[in-house]
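Readers of this paper often ask what the protein records in our data store actually look like. Such a record has a labelled line for the sequence and another for the backbone structure tokens. Nothing more is needed to write down the fold, since each code stands for a local backbone conformation. The record that follows is passed on verbatim for readers who wish to inspect the format.
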Amino acid sequence: MSLEPNCWAVVQEEASGCGIAACANLARISYAEAKELANSLGIYAEDKTLWSDTSYVRQLLSALNISVSDKQTDFVSWDNLPDRALIALKWHEINGEPFWHWAVFRRDDNGAVVIDSARRLKSPIRADFGRMKPKWFLAVS
């Protein structure tokens, strides 16, 4: 698969900034711009509840005029995802509390990719679908 050369990809700047970076990727703005807006809404990357609550990301997306579904949908297969979605990767529980890593799924004429903001990756544009195990997703319209 050939990826478009100008595919937008923001990398998170804080360990717990994946939700902010995912919103930046959907809005096609910088991490700094998304973080400034998030902070003005009382949302901070240092708050680990960004990993275990969808309300913060929903609030930030709303402020960016991006619509997201009201419900989480269980992941079945990559083919069943809508053309744009927020996906929950690395889902796990700690003391009964769910945690996950936010990433963006996008499908267009160039194919499907996951935009993963994790700094540890060689590239934030991923197509190694067999390695990623989403738990659920939020459809983005």
User: Anything to note?
Assistant: Residues 18-139 form a domain with the Cathepsin B; Chain A fold (CATH 3.90.70). The chain has one domain: 18-139.
